[in-house]
């Protein structure tokens, strides 16, 4: 299980369950939240071009940590010890997203049953 994918989808899923009216609407909202996360994470532009305020915000984005870790390994030849901070952030974040996604989905199912 890749912590990057779990983190990325988890954020979209949790936000999607907060705004969707039905469980079927969650998937479209995952994509709607995903694109801004990709932009802020540095998937399209290098984070070195970001102003300081965006860099501070990007620190909470799992895509930022994945990009930094992958670029460190691919471009700079770093090993796991060098990217441990990014890896552990992604690991802990993905565990939180699994728990948060489960709780959010259960809440959404309870709300749907009442309708």
Distance between the termini: 35 Å
Q: How do the helices and strands follow one another from N- to C-terminus?
A: HHHHH
Question: Can you give the mean pLDDT?
Answer: 86
**Approximately how much beta-strand content do the residues carry?**
under 5%
Instruction: Give me the number of helical elements.
Output: 5
Helix proportion range? over 70%
Structural class: mainly alpha
Count the E strands: 0
Q: What about the largest sheet?
A: none
Quaternary state of this entry equals single chain
**CA-based shape:** elongated
Radius of gyration: 16 Å
Uncertain regions spanning at least 5 consecutive residues:
none
Strands, helices and their partners?
Blueprint: H1 3-19, H2 26-41, H3 52-58, H4 62-76, H5 84-114
Helix pairs in contact: 1-2, 1-5, 2-4, 4-5
Task: Please give a structural write-up.
- This protein has 115 residues and is an all-alpha fold.
- It is 75% helix and 0% strand.
- The model has no long low-confidence stretch (mean pLDDT 86).
In short:
This protein has helices at residues 3-19, 26-41, 52-58, 62-76, 84-114. The chain has 115 residues and is mainly α.
What descriptive keywords fit this protein?
single chain, elongated, 115 residues, 5 helices
